[in-house]
Automatic annotation (TrEMBL):
Keywords tagged on the record: Oxidoreductase, Thiamine pyrophosphate
Name recorded for this polypeptide: Transketolase-like pyrimidine-binding domain-containing protein
Cofactor names: thiamine diphosphate
Transketolase-like pyrimidine-binding domain segment(s): 9-184
The species this protein was found in: marine metagenome
SUPFAM superfamilies reported in the protein's UniProt record: Thiamin diphosphate-binding fold (THDP-binding) (SSF52518), TK C-terminal domain-like (SSF52922)
Keyword Lyase on entry: no
CDD domains: TPP_PYR_E1-PDHc-beta_like (cd07036)
Pfam families assigned to the protein according to its UniProt record, in alphabetical order: Transket_pyr, Transketolase_C
GO molecular function: oxidoreductase activity
Length: 339
């Protein structure tokens, strides 16, 4: 922590602060989910909210995902603004009907007469050896369905601003936070995710990617924890005269295509680094967007994609590291593209 004007927060603390400020501002905002109350969220995203707002507005739920996701959707339709946490994205499958067929579609099916200001939060990602059922990202599954906004912050500043933006949105927002950048002391994390966060309330708009590092030789599009792995690789490559432009997408829906295309038009090379699965996912979508605009980007080499291999995430640390792209994989891929 620094002084008041330059304090730093972990992502977990920033998310919690964003929720608290909106709960203070709007009495219709409430939190529900698995271990969100006394425990403060298994990854710290709701820390301190129970003591501040009480059990009527910060509610632990049974492990019955269909029930509490459905309850949140119904509450939103009646004018409330629920923030609902499902502990791991891997278990969204048990309540997919509520997400795909109700939360995502009811605004459209009502002709716009129903608003659904639901924020659905969950933890994503591997890197801490929790095996196949607790280590996936899966955001591409939900980006594929019309009606859902998909938010994936990489740092504390964005995490707070995008949480506030999500709560104020009248559409359902899925908010994915990576365990490895939450700043928890009991697990290793990328310290670059802990950033300056203003005390006052602010928003970060959706659909605005950020160029977090400028470069002229290659565009690297990424998001979430992979931003930090990419930055490590870019710093190493800079010493060899290779300038990597790193784009943090921030949101998948809406997707900022213009920032991607403008960068590739400058560098003429594209690499996508993603912690979701390779096949039928985000990396292929980004590649397709560029392929559909070849007349304006003039690629000098084929697009390269780095993503999770099409296997369940292994428990074994060496095998997990082999399945999920690492900084060294990004570095080696870019060197090959520059050869």
């Amino acid at each position: 922590m620094g002084n008041e004007n330059n304090r730093e927060l972990t992502m977990a603390a920033a998310i919690s602060e964003g929720m608290a400020q909106e709960m203070e501002r709007d009495e219709n905002v409430f939190v529900m989910g698995e271990d969100v109350a006394k425990y403060g969220g298994i990854f710290g995203a709701t820390g301190g909210l129970l003591d501040r707002f009480g059990a009527d507005r910060v509610m632990d739920t049974p492990i019955s995902e269909t029930a509490f996701i459905g309850a949140a959707t119904g509450a939103a339709a009646e004018g409330m603004r629920p923030i609902v946490e499902l502990m791991f994205v891997d278990f969204f499958g048990v309540c997919m009907d509520q997400i795909y067929n109700h939360m995502a579609k009811n605004i459209y099916m009502s002709g716009g007469n129903v608003k659904l200001p639901v924020v659905l939060t969950t933890a994503i990602g591997g890197g801490y050896n929790d095996a196949a059922q607790h280590s996936q990202c899966l955001y591409s599954l939900f980006a594929h369905v019309p009606g859902l906004k998909i938010v994936v912050p990489s740092n504390a500043y964005d995490a707070k601003g995008m949480m506030i933006e999500a709560i104020r949105d009248d559409n359902p927002v899925m908010y994915f936070f990576h365990k490895g950048i939450m700043g928890l002391l009991w697990m290793a994390y990328f310290t670059g995710s802990t950033t300056h966060v203003p005390e006052e309330s602010y928003t970060v708009p959706f659909g605005k990617a950020k160029v977090v590092r400028e470069g002229n030789d290659i565009t690297l599009v990424t998001l979430s924890q992979m931003v930090h792995k990419t930055m490590q690789a870019a710093e190493t490559l800079e010493s060899d005269g290779i300038g990597v432009e790193v784009i943090d997408l921030r949101t998948l829906v809406p997707l900022d295509k213009d920032t991607i295309l403008n960068s590739v038009a400058k560098t003429h090379r594209l690499c996508v680094a993603d912690e979701d699965y390779l096949s039928f996912g985000l990396s292929g979508e980004i590649a397709a967007i560029v392929a559909e605009n070849l007349d304006s980007v003039d690629l000098t080499c084929p697009v390269k994609r780095l993503a999770v291999k099409d296997v369940p995430i292994p428990y074994s640390p060496p095998l997990e590291n082999a399945a999920i792209p690492q900084s060294s994989d990004i570095e080696n891929t870019i060197r090959g593209m520059m050869a």
